[in-house]
Amino acid sequence: MIVKDEATAETFAPDGHAIERLPCGSSLTICLPDGLSHRSSAGTGTVMRPETLRRSAFEAGFGSADILPTGEFGFWRFYRLSG
Question: N or C end of the chain: smaller count of CB under 10 Å?
Answer without folding.
Answer: C
